[in-house]
Amino acid sequence: MNNEYLEFKTLLESIKQSGKKPTLLLHSCCGPCSSYVLNMLKEYFKITIFYYNPNIYPHEEFIKRYNVQVDLIKKMNLNIDVIMIDEDYSVYLDAVKGYSDLKEGSMRCYRCYEFRIKKLSEYASMKGFDYYSTVMSVSPYKSSKWINELGIIYQDKALFLYSNYKKENGYKESIKLSKLYDLYRQDWCGCEFSLKEHEERINNKISE
Ligand code: SF4
User: Ligand 1: does its nearest atom lie under 6 Å from the Cβ of 109?
Assistant: First the structure.
């Protein structure tokens, strides 16, 4: 375990000892990624989900993932509000301008994390949340290093909660929970470019 993760675990323990749950604005990109994180954090925080993902393409998919998120909370029997901010896809395109030709995992994704984490932090501070965090770091395809770097850069009044939910088999657990709750799990990350990359992978397999 690295130092940051140990500090994160120590913080959780001290919250438990205090008997008081701080408020947490938790960014979520989809139900499956949030499943394990919600399960893990629910006993420490009073959580509100922040569904802010203008990067998801097409818009029907954005709505579909939102509905899965809301459905998951019902299935988990949690008393959690979901704030959905529905901004135009052009917001995402502006954020990744100049990087859209790059592959998944590149600076395109850094910029995509950045504009969402910035908005998350602003909203958390404006609404008086104690902490903010994002479930995105549960995915093995997403850089926890970048997510944590950005979380700190944009920290204002609300505090950034260290985020590396891949630890302790977080990703595997999220797959198990997705099966348990019978959740729709998409095959591409979100944007049109990741959808195209996914389709290319399928076509390459068929032609092999
Ligand atoms: S692949 Fe995912 S993280 Fe990367 S730019 Fe597209 S939607 Fe954003």
Answer: yes
Cβ-based neighbour number of residue 174 at 10 Å = 27
Q: Can you tell me the mean pLDDT for 35-55?
A: 98
Distance (Å) from CA 78 to ligand 1 centroid: 29
Confidence of residue 17 (pLDDT cuts 50, 70, 90): very high
Ligand 1 centroid–CA 190 distance in Å is 6
User: 152-156: long-range contacts (C-beta < 8 A, 24 or more apart)?
Assistant: 154/117, 154/118, 154/120, 154/121, 154/122, 155/121, 156/121, 156/122, 156/125
Tell me which residue range forms the domain holding 68: 3-207
Domain with residue 56: its CATH number is 3.40.50.620
- What gap in Å lies between CA 26 and CA 47, rounded to an integer? 7
- pTM for this one? 0.96
Domain count, the chain: 1
Q: What are the tens digits of pLDDT across the range 115-142?
A: 999 999 999 999 999 999 999 999 999 9
